[in-house]
Each structure stands twice: as C-alpha cells, then as structure tokens.
What we know:
- By secondary structure, the chain is an alpha+beta fold.
- The chain has a domain of 78 residues.
- Strands 2-3-6-7-1-8 form a 6-stranded mixed beta sheet. Strands 4-5 form a two-stranded antiparallel sheet.
- The radius of gyration is 22 Å and the shape is elongated.
- About 5% of the residues have low confidence.
Amino acid sequence: xxxxxxxxxxxxxxxxxxxxxxxxxxxxxxxxxxxxxxxxxxxxxxxxxxxxxxxxxxxxxxxxxxxxxxxxxxxxxxxxxxxxxxxxxxxxxxxxxxxxxxxxxxxxxxxxxxxxxxxxxxxxxxxxxxxx
Length: 132
C-alpha cells in the first residue's frame, strides 16, 4: 500500500466531508459510497493518515481489516512522490458515478420486470410431453 503526502487542509476537508467509517492509530477511513469492492466482496475506502504532523492519503482504497492492521511504520515506509497519481476520484465524480450506477440499475430492474411479466404471460413449457 502506497501513501502520498497531502496538505493539512486536504486532510481536514476529507475528515469533515462525511463522518469517518472507522479510526485507527494512523488516521481514518473515509465513509460513504465505497470506492470499489475487492474479490471477496469487501468494500474498499480511501484512507487518510496523520503522523508526525504530516498528512497522507492512500493511493489505493483499503478494506476495513487492511486499514485496521496498518501501522505508522507501514505508512512512513511507503510514501510516494507527488508525481504518483491517486486512482481515486473526487467526491463530485464519486457522486456522479453513484447516480449513473443507480440510474442503470433502476432501468435494469424495470427491464427485468417487463421481461418477467411478458415471459410468464406467453410462456410455453420447455418439455411439453413431460410437463403435462
């Protein structure tokens, strides 16, 4: 896990944006809509750390267990230069993506309902001789 330096103002902005999902000895895990999910289905969130008066942001999202296991040494040994781009999106982009996802899901549910009702009204047995 890599960490990049951020300003105190950026750290406070993220801290005040939404209540933290959890705290640890290094900082907090930002709550809200998960950044994504890992292969086990665990949600992952962006983490923020404050150590020795310096502030850091994870360059990749973390799960709750991964974040809780993170030590100050893990952060300090894995600081990257400012030229490394974070893969996270801005809160505005996160909100837009969430809205787009909800829009698509709502339309899929309507479509599934339509197909289901149309299919049940016109359904024919797959095996007519067996289904008598």
